[in-house]
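Quick start: read one record
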Amino acid sequence: MTPQPTFSEALKFWAKLGFISFGGPAGQIATMQHELVDERRWIGQDAFLQALNFCMLLPGPEAQQLATYVGWKLHGLKGALAAGILFVLPGALLLYALSWMSAAHGDTSVVQAVFAGLKPVVVAVVLHATWKVGRRVLKTPAAVALAVAAFLAMEFGHIPFPFIIILVGAIGWVAAKPAEAHTGQVFPPGTGLRLLRLLGLYLVLLLVPLGTLIMLAGAKPFADIGRFFTQTALVTFGGAYAILPYVADAAVNQFHWLDSSQMINGLALAETTPGPLILVLQFVGFFAGWNADNGLTPMVSATLAAGLTTYVTFLPSIMLIVAGAPYIEDIARVKRAAGALTFVTAAVVGVIATLATLLGRQVIFTGDGDLDSIAIAIIAVAFVVLWRVKNSLHWVILGGVVFGLVRLI
């Protein structure tokens, strides 16, 4: 490796990465592989891959967590905070502006036309994600059966996503063969005490800002946002697509923060911005604040709600890396964790399929209940392009925008 960069040099890179982190987790990880391992050589290939495997065991966006780990590896806690925050910040600010546009001006004909062109593309993107993940992980009849069972459980049994993840992970943990017996401690002395201290710090960082906000601005909708999105962040295995059916159902049907059409709009906007796709939760939080009857102006309420959503969504991601980074080699010995991840990943394919079903119902049928042949054609064309052409996501999204505007004319 080359000499360790100064903190200032690393800070410039993390800021740059936040602006160019398009392409979903695969594209983001590939960018970090090229920039950090191949070009700058700030981290070795083996350490990079070992950290990636560790991040895949955790809930949350693995690309952001991987950047957080490299930041920690280079400059400790301040490096982890810089990398983790800057990976998210540019996309969060851009999505905040787009959320305001959607909330304040979403009823204009031009904005509606853009969203009308984007929505079928979003369905194609989710279908493509289902196909890609399924092709990679559904390699045995048992894995296929697990994915189908997860789909049926959510689609027809209405079983909550967190329960499915916990159940499937527990089954995978029990079914996996334990590591061979070995002498000595798996983790170094003092690990338990350190983790307890970090848990206490996490609770302080979570509850003090949330409690202060509730005292100053009232409970609605901030108490629900803090509870729901904290819970969501802790069970986000398999990427944002896996958690979105659960979020969409709760946000639309339980909390009534936004409607199903606006939910698809949020996903479409999140696809166009840099950073993790899980930033779509910020869009949901923005609308929760915008539509809340809490005595605040819509803009103030939405700003506070969006900020709180982003904070509680990404705080666990950074804390988990800070907690686990010193023990990556030790954690690699825990074979049961890998077994749990294998089962969860297979189930996630079925969960993502429920998202495609949820979005598809909103897009391929007209308001009268008839099939929308134009929307179906856009979905088919977009899927084929995504399937056949590498790095075509943003061109497909741009094509949807152009098509929507052309239809308006």
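Residues 68 and 80 are 5 Å apart (CA to CA).
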